[in-house]
Write a structure and sequence with these properties.
The protein is α+β, with helices and mostly antiparallel strands and about 270 residues long. About 20% of the residues lie in helices and about 25% in strands.
Length: about 270
């Protein structure tokens, strides 16, 4: 095991709430296999109606346990451990795929606002892995540095829900959008961000698809409150420190699948 962040990178993450890791996350063959896996899942989910749109391919590991090959890979966990410590649990994952020309806007939000009451403390590290290149031309993620110290802003309805991934966003004027930083990434590079930071992305009006895999982790000392519609967390490394129950990564999450037999919900 060789932890992949230096002290200055960890310091930037803690101070600013995000970090760009501008080197390959996986060996090329491993990344190519992940991308092939995603393409197969995308075809299946859209053909079978599991997901309402490619932007909403949430918790894919519940349906496809083979994704744990990458979610539990040391290449990822060694990015997370310098921030969370040696005892790590997988909180969630999400392929957010914006098709070329029609990919939806992601309104300004905090991930923590969707998870309120479910984690104690609310400390989540998201590794945002670029499956496709992510640029300003195809709607890359944008963050507002330093806004991760709260995590629970006031929200309002979006003007045009059909063109947005979410129906609400942080109230206009409550933060300085001029401070936004574009998170531009090559394929197989990643960013890390705190679950409380304000972030969003523009619609993809460009000619190239933009897909990222979010891999979300918590300390195994964090308490998970309840199973939401069969929602499970998984011990990724080390030892449980909070008395949590963990799912079996070798099996599909049948409780979740059965609870959503009519189609995958628009989660986060």
């Amino acid at each position: 095991m060789a932890l992949r962040l230096c002290d200055s990178q960890v310091r930037q993450y803690r101070e600013q709430g995000y970090l760009i890791f501008d080197r390959p996350v996986f060996a090329q063959a491993r990344f190519d296999a992940l991308r092939d896996c995603f393409e197969q899942l995308l075809t299946r989910w859209m053909d079978e109606g599991i997901s309402r749109s490619p932007e909403h391919m949430d918790v894919p590991h519940f349906w496809a346990p083979r994704l744990f090959d990458w979610l539990f890979d040391d290449a990822v966990l060694d990015l997370v451990e310098p921030i969370l410590g040696p005892d790590i649990a997988l909180w969630s994952s999400h392929f957010i795929c914006k098709p070329a020309a029609v990919g939806k806007r992601v309104p300004w939000h905090e991930d923590s606002a969707y998870w309120k009451g479910r984690l104690d403390p609310m400390e989540v590290v998201t590794v945002w892995l670029a499956i496709d290149p992510s640029t300003t031309a195809n709607g890359c993620m944008r963050v507002i540095p330093g806004t991760h110290r709260n995590g629970f802003s006031q929200y309002e309805d979006v003007a045009d829900p059909q063109t947005q991934v979410f129906k609400t966003e942080i109230r206009s004027g409550s933060f300085d959008e001029a401070q936004a930083v574009d998170i531009q990434l090559q394929a197989n590079h990643c960013s890390l961000h705190d679950g409380r930071i304000i972030h969003g992305s523009a619609a993809n009006t460009g000619s190239l698809r933009r897909c990222g895999l979010t891999m979300r982790y918590i300390s195994a000392a964090t308490r998970h409150h309840g199973g939401h519609d069969g929602f499970q967390i998984y011990l990724a490394r080390g030892t449980d420190r909070a008395g949590n129950a963990y799912g079996d990564p070798s099996k599909p999450n049948r409780a979740w699948i059965e609870a959503h037999a009519d189609g995958q919900p628009a989660g986060h």
